[in-house]
Design goal:
By secondary structure, the chain is mainly beta. Helix content is about 15%, strand content about 35%. The protein is built from four helices and twelve strands. Strands 1, 2, 3, 4, 5, 6, 7, 8, 9, 10, 11 and 12 form a twelve-stranded mixed sheet that branches. A hairpin with a 2-residue loop joins β11 and β12. α3 packs across α4. The longest helix is centred in the last third of the chain and has 13 residues.
Length: about 230
């Protein structure tokens, strides 16, 4: 089982005593000076802002759930795990300890809801590093990938009478991509998808979208792609 487990990690959703230094961990987030201490909601000061972590935003689901881990060699394991959105990692429980998966050795991750996640680079090449993508649709020659992540958001500007501690907070971000071959395009609206698919307003696809009142939602993109795939 250690073939695909990296270093032990810190459980961001568990509670810890304020003076318990043994369970502190450093995470390389978007600010190298930010040190995050394990706990349900906690702050660590730096010269500018403190950082507040909400486990409900730090994880796709803070609760450990059964995950099916498929390795590149085809081996499959069932382990309790969860997806950490802050740094796009997967945590798994083994022998009462929590470890990070080595994404380079993982082919796919299937959660308790049957959702399939794969690891890869940003399809548009704009965002550095590897990320986790939910495969919302997989057709003969195109896929719809959804990346669930977070970004740090600065606190609102203080006035001179506000002496409260300023804290950066996590903001949830969802990005959707249509990937055809080695090319990827971010989809923000149904019209973006229609343009990539070459659908005119009078096409069967757009008539289907109009009849079914499809909107700018991932589920609606999937409905349109399934309709096109079946034609």
């Amino acid at each position: 089982m250690t073939a695909f487990a990296q270093n032990q990690t810190t459980d961001l959703s568990s509670q810890t005593e304020p003076n318990d230094k043994t369970r502190q961990a450093m995470f390389n987030l978007q600010d190298p000076s930010a040190a995050l201490t394990a706990g349900g909601a906690f702050y660590v000061s730096n010269p500018t802002f403190a950082y507040e972590i909400d486990p409900k935003k730090a994880y796709l689901n803070p609760t450990f759930q059964p995950l099916s881990i498929v390795l590149l060699n085809g081996q499959e394991y069932e382990l309790p795990g969860r997806i950490r959105l802050i740094d796009q990692k997967v945590e798994v429980q083994m022998d009462d300890k929590v470890y990070d998966l080595d994404n380079q050795k993982v082919q796919a991750i299937i959660d308790a809801q049957g959702r399939v996640f794969v690891s890869g680079f940003d399809p548009t090449g704009r965002i550095k590093g590897t990320h986790l993508y939910e495969v919302a649709f997989a057709g003969a020659d195109r896929r719809l990938l959804v990346n669930h992540s977070t970004v740090w958001e600065d606190p609102p500007q203080q006035n001179m009478f506000d002496t409260s501690e300023q804290r950066k907070t996590l903001k949830s971000v969802t990005r959707t991509y249509l990937v055809v071959g080695s090319n990827g395009l971010e989809i923000n609206r149904l019209s973006d998808l229609a343009d990539v698919l070459g659908l005119s307003k009078r096409s069967e696809g757009m008539q289907f979208a109009k009849r079914n009142r499809l909107r700018n939602e991932t589920a609606d993109y999937v409905d349109l792609l399934q309709f096109i795939e079946a034609r």
